[in-house]
Amino acid sequence: MYKAIAILVLTLVLGAAMVMALGITGGGAASGAGRADIVLINRGDVNTLDVQRMSWLQDFRVASALYEGLLSADRFGSSFELRPALAESWTVSADGLTYVFKLRSTAKWSNGEAVTAEHLRLSWRRAMLPDIVGDYATLFRLIDGAAAFYTWREEQLKAFAAAGGGPRFAEASALWQETVRRYDETVGVRAIDALTLEVKLRRPVAYFLELMAFEAFFPIYTPAAEPYEQPDATSGRISFSTAWTRPPQLISNGRFKLEKWRFRRDMLLVANPHYWNQSDIHARSILLPSVNDPNAQVMAYTTGTVDWLTDVVPDYRAEMIAAKRQFYRENLEAYRTLLQQGLDPVEIDRHLPPDPRAHIHVFPTFGTYWYNINCQPLLPDGTPNAMVDRRVRQALALAIDKKYIVEQIRRSGESIASTMVPPGSLGTYDTKATVRGLGSDVARARQLLVEAGYPGGAGLPVLEILFNRDGGHDLIAQAVSRDWQENLGVSVRLVQKDTKIVGKDLQNKNYVISRAGWFGDYGDPTTFLDLNRSDDNNNDRGYNSPEFDALMHAADAELNVEARMALLAQAEKLIVEVDLPLIPIFHYTSTMLFDAHKVSGVSPHPRQRQDFGLLGRIEGPKGDGVRALTPRSVLPNAAAPALRSAITLDATELLPHALPGTKP
Amino acid sequence: MIRLIASRLAQLPLIVLVIYTVTLFLSWQIPGSPLDAPEGKRPPPEVIAAMEAQYNLDSFGTFYFSYLDNASGLRWVREKLEGTAAMERAAAQETGRPYIERSIFDLGPSLQYDNWRTVEIISGSLPVSVAIGALGLAFAVFIGVLAGVVGAARPGSLADGLTFSIALIGVSLPSFVSGTLLLLIFPVMLGWGAIGRLATPLDLLLPAVTLSLPFAAYIARLTRMGMIEALSADYVRTARAKGCSPSRVLFAHALKNAGLPVLSYLGPAAALALTGSFVVERLFSIPGLGQHFVGAVLAKDLFLIIGVVMVFSTMLIVLNLVVDVLYRWIDPRIS
Fold first, then answer.
1. Which among A29-38, A145-154, B65-74, B253-262 has the top mean pLDDT?
2. Is A240 helix (H, G, I), strand (E, B) or coil?
3. Helices (DSSP H) in A399-441: which residue ranges?
4. Kind of pairing, strands A229-231 and A238-240?
5. What distance lies between CA B157 and its chain's CA centroid?
6. B135/A24 Cβ within 8 A
7. What b/e sequence results for A375-384 when a residue is b if at least 16 CB atoms lie within 10 Å of its CB, and e otherwise?
8. Across the interface, do A501 and B87 touch by the CB < 8 Å criterion?
9. Which of A57, A158, B82, B254 could form a disulfide with B230 if both were Cys (CB 3.0 to 4.6 A apart)?
10. B128-141 b/e with 16+ CB inside 10 Å = b?
């Protein structure tokens, strides 16, 4: 009997397993003949496709393929120029407060309906409601009346909830009607006609057009979302369901539409037949399988399952980068010529012979890694904070050997940072001559400590460096601590905590020195500099400088672009040369794997806002997909910053011929 | 037997309630907010407050009871009885909006995966984990029992030493090493199978093998110990004396008794294997349940943490019950 049971159980278990295996593996989009034109592994799994609630980079990249905003940025030109997209033209009033956008009459949703100004107006209303609020809600407060509308709604909801007493359908519905009416009447967004949108701002915002190319401001197909957003009879809030973001409900206006989305498995985008500019779609389908292990990601790429791995994480990427340098050395003559022609880095690879070593690409990004210094006079435990003296902060900055960190620890083409805003990332903000930041100068650092009353580090408390586990932050902290101990004589203690705890400590300013990083959201220096405003919510350093605040305030009011940028440069100079509430260490790079001979549409621009909608396949299933990638000018005399790869050869290796940038 | 099953099933909700309370209490202590944005960017406090209010995250008590209300089905029953559900439907119809039916056991949204309900996540990933787990467990039992019997048949022999070393390696080699090795050997070097794809049942083979190794090793050791003990027992000598073939003695007589410890181990092992493994799933890009045990905690995704813990504990309790029932069936002496 025992044997019978054993056989029975085993058969049942195996049978069930096989049935399930067939069930879960069936219909794999990646299988066999139906391979998508482009298969790519995104930075992570997509969290949401509701643009007004997005906060993750991987979501934005997919959103840019699915949706189209009023404007879009030229991701292949060095100036990252804004161009008409959903809007075919726009005007700005002389006082910089009123924007009028004219929508393209040919723009259609993926169900064939026209995209109207009303869709945008209602999409933006979602972002201004406390009910559906997302991380970028703050940006919408630049619009006239938005902040007051938000506060009013929040108060009404509190009152509604306080009244209690079970579900009140009529009242909840009435409150919603009132909210809709208030939005129509008090918020500065108006649909003048089906194709004209007028936006009034609270104050002039120099980068407002940049925001129109930012995904949070993209329209959603509100008729599909609205049925799922109804007032809850108990709380009065709009309770929302995201069912409309799933295929086939998701209706989009971008180059692609959502065909399939299986949680933690894959997502399939196919070309949108109703997109107004069909000739600007270069792939028929894009598959995003969910692969989360860093090693498996690289193996998936090397075995050919994947065409583009957007973020290469494993440590051995440094060796892969070294191999690519070797590849350049082996093709030195051709490489040098291509550099001199001023081609962009992807185009250069495209002109060199195919080689697996060339598949790794490293580009500068719009992000900076730095150390926060707590600037508050007292630490949370009530003890006085020696860091309040800016000479001490300057000394700490001068004593760090950033070159060692970049070349020996990070090893992925990062550049040494002495400013907050990565140089060359913003065309209009050229600070090469004006904002230099502090370099490395141990003698001056020692002198500053003497002046501050801590000769040889005597009298300074033990400095604690707070950082989060993972990501190699420990190695950098060790290097910094060694520099400070050896160069300045101060004692340093390393404190390693989990990411969430570090976040809490930063918020409560419960630290002395801490590791931090920041990626800019939109193309303006304020996306970095705002962090230092005394009232900014992300001012983790407790930095409070009336001088800095005044400069930022003056920049807010300045309508002339050049004058405004000069004010902002002055403000940044104050931060990175005088006050040092933070010590910039390096600018992040982005490391990716793709074959430039096969894949087109990956942006090498330092802003690193990838738009999956632009991807194309140079050869392969479609056969005809050669993207019209015109060689871009990155010649040194151009006003715009050069598009460059972070994988370069030393200047000496490029001799004997002239270097790019010098006359041959 | 029936009484055992009935009483255990009656205890189940109580145990689950205790586990829920402890889990929520512990996960509430995780520092930080589940609504934290990436890269440490913080929306203004009133925005955070609004987000917390959406999910009842503002106080432990509110969350505890509202979750219990939703997840236990109480709210569903109450709304049916009070007629609130009907009123909501009428209100929706009046305004021409579709009425979204509340699920009976509403485990809430996921805070980490904004777009998905906890129920969807679990019901989507559990079958995957169960398929791989069952396959892995079947491998484990087959390999483990066979290795154990071979080892016990001739203790101290080369075969014993070999199976013992393999078992030792199986126990001590972490899955991320054995899995990476398998990936390197098969898809990368030999070109068999693909990485990052789950398209054919064959794609499940490597993860199932990786998953089975530690279990197989443990089962082999259990079997070997039990077999050595059983082989020295009187009844085995009798069986041999009456002329049974060596294989019949091994498999029919000795294994029956030696199998009991394996069976009791299979209960918790099955619960573990069937709910998936974080490492194996990550390595082979499998959309199973295991990843959420780690991911949900790191993200402080309260709804998902409680959801997966509930599923795991229920499976553990039920599978232990199954083992107990099987035990009594096989060995009537146990009461």
1. A145-154
2. strand
3. 402-404
4. antiparallel
5. 37
6. no
7. beeebeeeee
8. no
9. B254
10. bbbbbbbbbbbbbb
- Choice among A171-175, A338-342, A444-448, B228-232 with the minimum mean pLDDT: A338-342
Q: Is A48 on the interface with B (CB under 8 A)?
A: yes
Question: Which of the two residues, B97 and A392, has the higher pLDDT score?
Answer: A392
- Cis peptide preceding A656, ω within 30 of 0: yes
Number of C-beta neighbours around residue A102 at 10 A: 18
Neighboring chain A residues of B38 at a CB cutoff of 8 Å: 55-57
What secondary structure, in 3-state letters, does A50-89 show?
CHHHCCCHHHHHHHHHHCCCCEEECCCCCCCCEEECCEEE
Test B39 with A517 for CB contact under 8 angstroms: yes
In this structure, the dihedral spanned by the alpha carbons of residues B333, B9, B314 and B30, taken in order and rounded to 10 degrees, is: -120
Whether B105 has a pLDDT exceeding 90, the answer reads: no
**CB proximity A368 to B under 8 Å:** no
Short-list A548, A602, A606, CA closest to A575: A548
Number of residues that make up chain A: 664
- The partner residue sitting opposite A299, judged by closest CB among B84, B97, B187, is B187
SS (H, E, C) A471-519: CCHHHHHHHHHHHHHHHHCCCEEEEEECHHHHHHHHHCCCCCEEEEEEE
A201 confidence band (pLDDT: 50, 70, 90): very high
Say if residue A248 is preceded by a cis peptide, omega within 30 of 0.
yes
> CA-CA distance, A48 to A263, in Å (whole number)?
11
d(CA A516, CA A58): 21
Q: Indicate yes or no: CB of A500 within 8 angstroms of CB of B36.
A: yes
The answer to whether the complex's ipTM is over 0.85 is no
Exposed (0-12), middle (13-18) or buried (19+): which is A655, by Cβ within 10 Å? exposed
Burial B202-230 (b: 16+ CB within 10 A, else e): ebbbbbbbbbbbbbbbbbbbbbbebbbeb
Question: 3-class DSSP state for residue A662?
Answer: coil
| Chain B contact for A49 (CB, 8 A cutoff) | yes
Q: Where are the beta strands (DSSP E) in A217-326?
A: 229-231, 238-240, 256-262, 266-271, 285-289, 308-309
Paired tokens of B225: 């110990």
Local confidence band at A14 (pLDDT 50, 70, 90 cut-offs): low
What pLDDT score was predicted for residue A302? Answer: 92
Rounded to whole angstroms, the Cα distance separating B62 from B81 reads 23
CB B217 within 8 Å of CB B148: no
pTM of the model: 0.86
Per-residue confidence (pLDDT) for residue A27, from 0 to 100: 45
Q: Count the neighbouring beta carbons within 10 Å of the beta carbon of residue A552.
A: 21
Rounded to an integer, what distance in angstroms lies between the CA atom of residue A604 and that of residue A658?
A: 24
Q: Give the pLDDT confidence of A474-484 residue by residue, as tens digits.
A: 999 999 999 99
Q: Quick check: A13 contacting B, CB < 8 Å?
A: yes
Q: How far apart are CA B185 and CA B181, in angstroms?
A: 6
Report pLDDT digits (tens) over B20-33.
Answer: 999 999 999 887 77
The 3 state secondary structure assigned to A544-555 is CCHHHHHHHHHH
A503 close contact with B: CB closer than 8 A: yes
Of A43, A222, A263, A365, which to mutate for an interface test with B (greatest number of B Cβ within 10 Å)? A263
Q: A542, A385 in Cβ contact below 8 A?
A: no
On chain A, the residues whose CB falls within 8 A of the CB of B41 are: 55, 135, 538
Looking only at the bridges linking them, the beta strands covering A38-41 and A285-289 are: parallel
Question: Mean per-residue pLDDT for A540-552?
Answer: 96
Residue percentage of chain A with pLDDT more than 90: 63
Cα distances (Å, whole numbers) of residue A154 to A184, A237, A604, B46, B66: 17, 9, 43, 9, 22
Question: Could you write out the three-class secondary structure of A306-344?
Answer: CCEECCCCCCCHHHHHHHHHHHHHHCHHHHHHHHHHCCC
